[in-house]
Amino acid sequence: MGDMRRVSVGIVGASGYGGVQLIRLLMDHPGVELAYLGGESSAGKPFADLYPHLGHIVRQQIEAVDPEVIASRCEVVFLSLPNGLACQIAPVLIEKGCKVLDLSADYRFTNLETYTTWYGKERNDRTIASKAVYGLPELYRDRIADSQLIGCPGCYPTASLLALSPLLKQGLIVPETAIIDAKSGTSGGGRQAKVNMLLAEADNSLGAYGVARHRHTPEIEQICSDLAGHEVTVQFTPHLIPMVRGILATVYATLRDPGLVGEDLTTIYSAFYRNSPWVTICDRGVYPQTKWACGSNLCYIGIEVDPRTGRAIVMSAIDNLIKGQAGQALQCLNIMMGWDETLGLPKLGFYP
Ligand SMILES: NC(=O)C1=CN([C@@H]2O[C@H](COP(=O)(O)OP(=O)(O)OC[C@H]3O[C@@H](n4cnc5c(N)ncnc54)[C@H](OP(=O)(O)O)[C@@H]3O)[C@@H](O)[C@H]2O)C=CC1
Ligand SMILES: CC(=O)N[C@@H](CCC(=O)OP(=O)(O)O)C(=O)O
Questions:
Q1: Which ligand is nearest to the CA of 182?
Q2: Nearest atom (ligand 1) to Cα of 321
Q3: Which end of the chain has a smaller Cβ tally under 10 Å, C or N?
Q4: Of ligand 1's atoms, which has the minimum distance to the CA of residue 320?
């Protein structure tokens, strides 16, 4: 591995949480070199001014965004920008032959009308968008390997879909009965200042938001529909919880066969994720905690069946900035480049 050719990589949005998390991961990756860091308000500043604790490792400056310049320097570009910007930059990068991994919602949807309805932005890059592959490796590994453009999933969809997929794919639940109750730490909202993310507002408090209208709902439904083979609606309710990193999604769904028990589902999940190094199925009676995943690219899944209600109850825990964002994007790059899917990704969390 030490003699691997290093691929030149650019990160647009390097000053944000996704960008800095990518930089941290790529510093330990033997196959890449950082060739460009881009931003808007941070353009012209040394990266070290923004993140002094990484200044001894990352010497570059943040630069203004010019897709032609980026394409001339980079073989691979990560776009970690607010929604609606990647679709203005990616077409040039794709045309110039770059591999592009977008961390926003711009390339997640197969139907751009759905994107416009939920994100309120018109699109004129249909041809390119139609080539994008949804970057959830546990479901679409083969397609990711052959793609030039990846629409990396949102953090809630990652946790929710990894919990639901085996049940949907094998027809074990009535899809429309699926209810996803998810909790996220505040880093899910990005690095810009927002009043509801102030410590004084978010601390000592837990509440739902975006109820019955969160924009991750159609994204989850798109993939659930693909797995079920027909249009599926789900109920998704996100909550903001007073912690910085992590998502816990608890999914409830009615089993078609009321005779199924927890052991059956644990066996089914273990088989489904047999070749997925970043999914860990908990032993019977063990339910995941966000702290276990924090700092790693792992998704922990715990499974239960309530024989009284006939429902499966599946819990999944991820770090929203790693498996839910930057780590997943790097996992996709590993697959696109034909590298080991685990290369450069943290196997153990921070704690304890
Ligand atoms: N946070 C999370 O848990 C997750 C986030 N995502 C998605 O990933 C993307 C990035 O999120 P996150 O890292 O949290 O966001 P941040 O708000 O932390 O960072 C946003 C970045 O975008 C840059 N930027 C903003 N506007 C422009 C512009 N016009 N031109 C160039 N650069 C610009 C900012 O640069 P500057 O600072 O220089 O202005 C900054 O580097 C978003 O689409 C988000 O929805 C996906 C999964 C999880
Ligand atoms: C806590 C918090 O605010 N979380 C964000 C999720 C961020 C994310 O993943 O959004 P994209 O789909 O735009 O990538 C939210 O609910 O908007």
A1: 2
A2: 3
A3: C
A4: 3
